[in-house]
Design brief:
With about 80 residues, the protein is mostly helical. The chain is about 70% helix and about 0% strand.
């Protein structure tokens, strides 16, 4: 099983630079033109894998709460 580790400072700096200044014609530039907020990608890259998983779990719990509230309102 692969172990996920946080990016090194050098890897993070390189990724941030590519996201802030995408090469013309790159997929990153296409995503930016499409309207993807690349600053959110950068924010998540700064988190450790465990922190990203924790945030995702919290979002799932919030979505379940909203779904439950909507069901109760309909019922």
């Amino acid at each position: 099983m692969k172990e996920w580790r946080p990016l090194t400072p050098e890897q993070l700096a390189r990724a941030e630079d590519r996201l802030r200044h995408p090469r013309p014609g790159s997929r990153i530039e296409a995503a930016q033109r499409y309207g993807i907020d690349l600053s959110l990608v950068i924010r998540h890259l700064r988190l450790s894998p465990a922190e990203r998983a924790r945030e995702m779990q919290e979002l799932i719990q919030q979505a379940e709460q909203v779904r439950g509230a909507a069901r109760r309102k309909r019922g």
